[in-house]
Amino acid sequence: MKKAIVSFSIYFLVNLMVYAQKIEKEGPNGFDQIRADIARGTLDSIKYESKTVGTIRKALVYTPPGFNKKTKYPVLYLLHGIGGDEKEWLNGGKPQVILDNLYAEGKIQPMIVVMPNGRAMKDDRAMGNIMAPDKVQAFATFEKDLLNDLIPFIEKKYAVLTDRENRAIAGLSMGGGQSLNFGLGNLDKFAWVGGFSSAPNTRIPEELVPNPEEAKKRLKLLWISCGNNDGLLSFSKRTHDYLYRNDVPHIYYIEPGVHDFKVWKNGLYMYSQFLFKPVDISSFTKYTILGTPASTNIRNAQYPQILPDNRVIFSVKAPNAQKVQIDLGKKYDMSKDTSGVWYVTTDSVSRGFHYYSLLIDGVALADPASETFYGMGRQASGIEIPYKEGGFYALRDVPHGDIRIKKYFSKASNSWREMYIYTPPGYDNSTEKYPVLYLLHGGGEDQRSWAAQGHTDLILDNLIAGQKAKPMVIAMLDGNVGGPGGIANFGEVQLRAFENELKNGAIPFIESNFRVETDARHRALAGLSMGGLQTLYAGIRNSGMFSYLGVFSSGWWANNPKLSDPQYDFMKNNAGTINTNLKELWISMGGKEDIAHDNCKIMLEKFDAMGIRYKYSEYAGGHTWPVWRHDIFQFSQLLFR
Asked: Which CDD domains match (predicted)?
């Protein structure tokens, strides 16, 4: 019994040490240099009959150190770029040196590596116009040559394992596109697929992985890597984005570099270490050097960068600053390097849009590398974190409406005001009259918010294209009326002022200047947070003007009876009228972490007691724009049916 305990303890300790080791993220110095003190593999040139091409073709074959003809080996097929041939890897990348060194260090499984000519045509030399249509087509034709001629030849000539789990494919540039196309298109043949700086020949993701569930089940490893300054990076990123949205495990590896062998050699060094042994899918997001610049960065800004696990790397140059932090709800201290550049990597950040600020020696500033948004009562930086379920606000190839910015003179406030108006696709070419949703922002924001932070136009474009929402006009109002803002100054005076602006300023302007219906059946009112209170006040008191009310992340304050009690009294006395007039009173929250959650729950209990009919929806995410985007996505589908 003691012996068993000791054995288990040693086993546990060894495994703990293995998993505690730091993950290697790039090849160390000398990984591609010949070492005199190690065993070496062998390179042979082979010829095989290609029935696909109708000629004899060439390839290079690497066999590992200690190669034994009686041992069966797994095989990696390693493909070159558009300007190369079977010797491109040999001449530019010295793969045999990289693999010998890895083998000597016990980091890779013994394997055979086949380097073919991926230009499947009779004259397959990399000469003349390499971009000629017939030569480009030959790279696609190579799929048949590979599957029907080369692989059978290798499996007949060499002692190799012939099941899919012992067959891998990878390549650089054009060969990277081939590898993704052929590997993912033949999951019955390949379990390990790698694309290094994949070229435009890479199929669009929907064709590349038409069945994500099958890919999840059959792939052992899908590797996608590229240099951060490679002009072809967008092709790798679009594939990664699709795989991310569809939950297909893969490694997305970005490193400093361009379209050259420095990047491709490192890709081979990293990729080959995973092959033909158990892999830990949970560790995939840790394998990258650089993140992807956020979509909210200004043009060409490299930072902030988002890592595959949604941690964020921030960077700012402030050589004379004494202390620099990032305020992302949580404050992160940054560290300065010798050139005066400050860096920090955050914890994993939740999906969707977030405001953030730089704190430089205690002063809150917008990040000059990021787009700014009016929020928190000032211009603040914003960052968009990838969201697997965010396809509903993605830019798609569908008909698009317009966001129109209009200034109008309001008789209600005797002042010039501004609103943003969404008009649906086809508005200008139609004689149709449209229903209207009046949409309100939260405290510290303004009329820009639902367009800039909320992506309302994209959400409606996609819904209308899918016939999930009625075409409608959306008037995004400036709800800042009635004096100073903020909770301390918010009360009935401000609510009455907004009600007046809505009825006597905004609605008359929309109905006089846009082709819209003017009856209650075709009007809706909704808002988030402060805008939710404005909706509760103006919408409930004027239920004869609206058939639909949406209240997002809001509710009458339980600790302010001076404000809330008159509202409840009005509702109690008019419950029948409210229920009759409103087709939908839709109330939503961002889960228990939403700061309005408790107030809302108390309010709904009072609604229940009064017999006020409503629908309640909850979507986890707190008091944030990811929640409100989802709210408008859900609410707009209920309208004007």
From this structure: E_set_Esterase_N
- Spatial separation of the C-alpha atoms in residues 616 and 553, rounded to whole Å: 11
CA dist., res. 619 & res. 599, Å (int) = 16
pTM, 2 dp: 0.83
Contact present, 39 and 66 (Cβ < 8 Å): yes
Q: Could you write out the three-class secondary structure of 224-278? A: EEEECCCCCHHHHHHHHHHHHHCCCCCEEEEECCCCCHHHHHHHHHHHHCCCCCC
**Whose CA is closest to 633, among 390, 438, 295, 296?**
390
Half-sphere CA count of 147, side-chain side, radius 13 A:
16
Kindly state whether residues 253 and 224 are assigned to the same domain: yes
- Domain range for residue 141? 43-126+136-286
Question: What is the Cβ-side half-sphere exposure of residue 342, based on CA atoms within 13 angstroms?
Answer: 20
User: How many angstroms separate the CA atoms of 262 and 282, rounded?
Assistant: 28
Cα torsion 573, 555, 449, 472 to 10°: value is -40
Looking at the structure, tell me whether residues 582 and 631 fall in a common domain.
Answer: yes
Residue 420 has pLDDT above 50, yes or no: yes
Q: pLDDT digit string (tens) for 539-555?
A: 999 999 999 999 999 99
Q: Average pLDDT for residues 273-292, to the nearest whole number?
A: 94
Instruction: Judge whether 67 and 42 are in contact, CB under 8 Å.
Output: yes
> How many domains does the chain divide into?
3
> pLDDT tens digit string along 175-190?
999 999 999 999 999 9
Q: Are 356 and 380 in contact (CB under 8 A)?
A: yes
DSSP letter string, 317-336: E-TT-S-EEEEESEEEE-EE
Task: Give yes or no for residue 260 having a pLDDT over 50.
Answer: yes
Residue 12 has pLDDT above 50, yes or no: no
> Rounded to an integer, what distance in angstroms lies between the CA atom of residue 547 and that of residue 524?
6
CB 86 within 8 A of CB 59: yes
Which two structure tokens, joined as six digits, stand for 250? Answer: 């893969």
Residue 2 lies in a domain: no
